[in-house]
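Here is one chain, start to finish.
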Amino acid sequence: MNNTIMDRALNNEFVLIAEIGVNYYDIAVKEKITPMEAAKLMIKEAKDAGIHAVKFQTYKAETLAAKDSPSYWDISEEKTTSQYELFQKYDSFNYEDYKELYNYCKDLNIEFLSTAFDIESADYLNDLMNVYKISSSDLNNLPFVEYQSKKGKPVLLSVGASNEEEIESTIKVIRKHNNEPIVLMHCILEYPTPFSHANLNRIVSLKNKYSNLIIGYSDHTKPDENADVIKTAYNLGAIVVEKHYTLDKSIPGNDHYHAMDSNDARKIIEGINFIDSLRGSYDIKYLETERQSRQNARRSLVAKSKIEKGTIIKKDMLTFKRPGTGISPSKINSVLGKKAIKTISDDEIIQFDMIDN
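Its structure:
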């Protein structure tokens, strides 16, 4: 399987994951197509937008939430107040469905993954994924973290609504069974996340504390006009970014209201590419494109007035003028006290072949 996520992340290249989740069910209703057709349509649109990977959510309502589990989202956006009732609307896919989606992704050369929310799905997704994604909601579900870690694959770990001690404990469990790369995903478990709650500086703290891990960001803010949230996260150190994805942000409920669409994704990728072009190289040296400017904008030692052949050159005979095609002022001590071996004209740029070396 082509491991786009980890290949890019390990090479310090930006990764954008479209969190389709279960949004394809609503797209199917809107477009009057089957959920499978809708899921494939979303994958195709994501690929066309330049997105690197698509992620789904694999669960059964009865294994995920008790029937009296209350909501934790904005009920003005998603009216369902029971987790069980919401999840039950979107849990019909099984192994064969995800295998079909995996094969479709493989044909399009876009990476497939899905967050497993139970043992059964963690098992059957194993052959379909290069990495395991552990959601913020399961960060402290250490038996399940351990189970997925034992699969021996890289882990994307969202750390929303967690403290430092919990993160440490979860990483220790993963590391006990798994030496593959870990991507720590900064996340705010608030749907949607107000911009003022994004708390992106925590990316810097995670990067400093866990310098041996890859840092990412799972974003739940509503898309902003210039993709400034994602671009800021990237500039602060988030290499892998996951964001909910839809084909229609006006669809009410579920994860559409804080999702990006294809145009948002293009904006994000264009913005990151522009940032990368600004960043350039870490080498401390001038660019080849600066060579002419370096020569013509710098100064050379220049004769203040005519210097006759045989004259011993003194400091008051010299000045500094552009261009830098002669002896650099930094080399003045190599000129002072030397004899002129030819007559140097007034305002002439001094070269080493004019003096006795």
